[in-house]
Amino acid sequence: MKSRICKLLLSQPISNTQRQASTIETQKSHGREIKLGISAVESNIVQSYCESKAFSDAHQLFDEMSDWDVVSATTIISRFAQRHRHKEAISLFSTMLVMNVRPNEFTFGTVIHSSTALRDLNLGKQLHACAAKIDLASNVFVGSAILDLYAKLSTIEEAQRAFEDTHEPNVVSYTTLICGYLKKEMFDDAFGLFQAMPERNVVSWNAMIGGHS
């Protein structure tokens, strides 16, 4: 599956009782839409299933959808990733490509983060190459995910290149590279980049303080 990837080219917590009721209502709605033969609402139903955490229902409906779209696919992929079901997120991404659905920056950012969580550098590099082919690698959301991948699993030089290739890096991009420097005990580089940050947040301050403690 990994070798084919490039070739194939997000609420209030719900209680168990509320979640069950929400899922039942969504299933009833889905049943009505099937009877009416309406497919235009399938995407909204998929997202509703995800919001009520009925992932198996969402995945099944998504598999059966007549017209896949990037919003529905990315919604399920993101929900899987948020629940640390990274292999399922990657698997659905691969299926998405088979169905000729073009990923967007949020899709790529999510699956690259999943490859990092799985500690699969080879897969992450393939996803990086795939994003670059459709001019998404420099997007700040994708770029931050690529930077995180290399900072955690590869060399600091690759992380630096990813940072330099990111269009208008944000506080997340800066903080990720700073953490990479600190991990390698490159304290002067970390401090220099921290000083160069256009803005800082609690995470970036904590990274610097923790790195020097």
UniProtKB/TrEMBL annotation:
PROSITE patterns: PPR
GO molecular function: RNA binding
PPR repeats: 69-103, 170-204
Gene3D superfamilies per UniProt: Tetratricopeptide repeat domain (1.25.40.10)
Pfam family, one: PPR_2
Residue intervals passing through the bilayer: none
GO BP field: RNA modification
UniProt keyword list: Repeat
PANTHER family documented for this protein: PENTATRICOPEPTIDE REPEAT-CONTAINING PROTEIN
Protein name: Pentatricopeptide repeat-containing protein
